[in-house]
């Protein structure tokens, strides 16, 4: 490991998908840093490119159907320069990934034990017995009550929460430095959610790993994240510490998101709704503020022609200058175009 | 596991009974009788009437059926009107021929189809995939008997590489030359049947492989750092073969049914040829026996499919 600032740094990364023979950016010009011992949350609504970013870091895209540019510097290696065999040295070993859907992410025909020890087959020299012991230890670590029994079971015999724990066990089997968790709790009910997040935090403390937590659940973010990056339509629109984002959100999108969260003290009010949709990849405008169509009351000249990131306070960055002029329609002093 | 199989077999009993009644009635419902024209074209109608009577063919159907069932349990399926021979002997002499041909065709079919299906799925959209798909569509479009006739003509008559009739050459003596001659006789029908019977397996397997390739569990395996060839070996192949394995039991019966074409065109003395001949002679006893056997084989085939599936797929295992 070199310096801490170089643990994972994503520089100007764009991923384009081929649709009808043409490439369209699903994420464009992403800049992000992750440190060890840190949980970075990436939030945004469905289709904003969160998962695309995760699979880009993991190198899981089909090279014939995607075009990736930029640089992903991980512990001194540019991952995007690696071939598949080179990438396999990182996948599972130094970077672990936790997937969204515990129902389909496990092979239905293999026993839990085989699916966990498969990671170790490729990244460790452990003997069969050592792997077996490690599997039981991992299952215990992720909170499985009867590891011996579960190890011998097939995925369909487990509950959703148990499957998600197995997936976490797979991701952490080789003590990776970086864990990418793509909506790890979305398919689970709230009590299990909290337990899973606790497991993640405990593992992070033990291994000093960096975690990228991808979610659309702001409650999860508030509970776990150190830093937050907000994504909209394939771009990062705001990033900062969790405190900065939750206490002094600046970008209109972040503020709208927070406002659309149910609050305990105003339960009689209707929830705020962000009108409109994220444009599809083919219809994404190449210039201008991508969020502008969804806040039509903000005058056009408040937006930048080519929105860039502006540092508000140290570590807190916002895209586009429109945040300075943004007020909700029902707020005092709001301007309408 | 044994419980499941036992339960499946118990369910088969009423199925077989209903099948046998249906088969018996349908055979009886066919127009014509086994005697007209078979003794001599100018036979006296009075004599035929007499023959029908002493053979019990004027009795009510349930009496005839009951007679038949009682005999069936004594291992007696009656005499063939056409051959004047016990039906059991008639069929047992031909069953082995049909079985060899069907098994040989099936092994060849899978040997051709499995690699093709996997290869096409793995290289989806590329040239080999296009060629394989084109090939399966062509074989699917051409009626099977046309292929058989063409095959006999080209490889049997023009080149003279293969025998065109029978199941064994009359000059074969000694066990080695007997086996050799039998094998030689099923070679051409077997190869033709296999080359032109791959379409289902290839297409099914191809789409299973394509589905598996983009499945979430394969993505999980890739995120573990498993090299692509191992992903194919440990994850994609086994999971894609599942429905194919399940289909295997059923496809055996499909081949038995298909043997009717092959045996007729190749004059191969099996159950299929016997069946076609018996229908043209209204040989009731043989027809009912054969249809019943085919029906039971079909039921056994589905049972076999269920058993295979419960072995290979842990989700279906019943404790």
UniProtKB/TrEMBL annotation, chain A:
Signal peptide: none annotated. This is ABC transporter ATP-binding protein. Residues 8-258 form the ABC transporter domain. It comes from the Bacteria. PANTHER family: DIPEPTIDE TRANSPORT ATP-BINDING PROTEIN DPPD, OLIGOPEPTIDE TRANSPORT ATP-BINDING PROTEIN APPD. The keyword Cell membrane applies. Its main location: membrane. It is found in: Cell membrane. One of its GO terms (molecular function) is ATP binding.
TrEMBL record, chain B:
InterPro entries: BPD_transp_1_N, MetI-like, MetI-like_sf. It is found in: Cell membrane. It is a multi-pass membrane protein. Residues 95-305 form the ABC transmembrane type-1 domain. Gene3D superfamilies: MetI-like (1.10.3720.10). Keywords: Cell membrane, Membrane, Transmembrane, Transmembrane helix, Transport. The chain crosses the membrane at residues 9-27, 99-122, 134-162, 182-205, 241-266, 286-312. SUPFAM superfamilies: MetI-like. Belongs to the binding-protein-dependent transport system permease family. PANTHER family: DIPEPTIDE TRANSPORT SYSTEM PERMEASE PROTEIN DPPB-RELATED (PTHR43163:SF6). This is ABC transporter permease. It comes from Levilactobacillus angrenensis.
């Amino acid at each position: 490991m070199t310096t801490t600032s170089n643990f994972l740094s994503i520089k100007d990364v764009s991923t384009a998908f081929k649709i009808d023979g043409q490439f369209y950016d699903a994420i464009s010009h992403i800049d992000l840093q992750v440190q060890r011992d840190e949980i970075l949350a990436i939030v945004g609504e469905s289709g904003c490119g969160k998962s695309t970013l995760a699979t880009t870091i993991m190198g899981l895209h089909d090279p014939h159907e995607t075009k990736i540019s930029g640089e992903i510097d991980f512990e001194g290696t540019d991952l995007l320069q690696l071939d598949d065999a080179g990438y396999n040295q990182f996948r599972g070993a130094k970077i672990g990934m936790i997937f969204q859907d515990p129902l389909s992410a496990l092979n239905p025909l293999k026993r839990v034990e085989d699916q966990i020890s498969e990671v170790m087959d490729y990244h460790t020299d452990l003997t069969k017995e050592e792997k077996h012991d490690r599997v039981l230890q991992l299952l215990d670590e992720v909170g499985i009550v009867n590891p011996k029994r579960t190890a011998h079971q097939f995925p369909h015999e487990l509950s959703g929460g148990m499957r998600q724990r197995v997936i976490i066990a797979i991701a952490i089997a080789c003590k990776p430095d970086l864990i990418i968790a793509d909506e790890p709790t979305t398919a689970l009910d709230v009590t299990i959610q909290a337990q899973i997040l606790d497991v993640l935090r405990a593992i992070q403390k033990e291994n000093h790993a960096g975690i990228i937590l991808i979610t659309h659940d702001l409650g999860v973010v508030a509970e776990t994240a150190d830093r937050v990056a907000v994504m909209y339509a394939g771009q990062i629109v705001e990033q900062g510490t969790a405190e900065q984002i939750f206490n002094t959100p600046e970008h209109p999108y972040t503020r709208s998101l927070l406002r659309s969260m149910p609050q305990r003290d105003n339960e009689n009010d209707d929830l705020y709704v962000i009108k409109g949709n994220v444009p599809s990849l083919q219809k994404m405008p190449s210039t201008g503020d991508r969020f502008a169509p969804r806040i039509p009351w903000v005058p056009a000249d408040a937006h930048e022609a080519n929105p860039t990131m502006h540092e508000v306070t140290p570590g807190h960055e916002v895209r586009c200058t429109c945040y300075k002029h943004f007020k909700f329609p029902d707020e005092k002093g709001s301007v309408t175009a | 596991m044994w419980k499941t199989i036992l339960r499946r077999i118990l369910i088969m009993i009423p199925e077989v009974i209903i099948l046998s009644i249906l088969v018996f009635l349908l055979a009886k419902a066919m127009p014509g009788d086994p005697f007209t024209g078979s003794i001599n074209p100018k036979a006296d109608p009075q004599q035929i009437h007499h023959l029908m009577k002493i053979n019990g063919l004027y009795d009510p159907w349930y009496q005839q059926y009951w007679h038949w069932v009682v005999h069936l349990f004594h291992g007696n399926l009656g005499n063939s009107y056409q051959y004047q021979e016990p039906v059991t002997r008639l069929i047992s002499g031909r069953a082995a021929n049909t079985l060899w041909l069907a098994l040989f065709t099936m092994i060849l079919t899978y040997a051709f189809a499995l690699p093709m299906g996997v290869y096409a799925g793995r290289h989806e959209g590329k040239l080999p995939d296009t060629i394989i798909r084109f090939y399966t569509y062509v074989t699917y479009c051409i009626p099977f008997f046309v292929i058989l006739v063409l095959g006999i003509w080209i490889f049997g008559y023009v080149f003279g590489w293969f025998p065109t009739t029978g199941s064994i050459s009359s000059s074969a003596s000694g066990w080695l030359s007997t086996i050799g001659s039998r094998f030689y006789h099923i070679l051409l029908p077997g190869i033709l049947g296999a080359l032109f019977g791959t379409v289902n397996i290839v297409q099914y397997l191809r789409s299973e492989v394509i589905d598996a390739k983009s499945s979430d569990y394969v993505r999980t395996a890739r995120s573990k750092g498993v090299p692509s060839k191992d992903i194919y070996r440990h994850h994609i192949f086994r999971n894609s073969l599942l429905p194919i394995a399940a289909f295997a039991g059923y496809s055996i019966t499909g081949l038995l049914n298909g043997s009717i074409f092959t045996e007729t065109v190749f004059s191969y003395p099996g159950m299929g040829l016997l069946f076609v001949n018996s229908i043209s002679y209204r040989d009731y006893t043989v027809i009912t026996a054969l249809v019943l056997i085919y029906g039971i084989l079909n039921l056994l085939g589905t049972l076999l499919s269920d058993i295979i599936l419960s072995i290979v797929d842990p989700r279906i295992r019943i404790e």
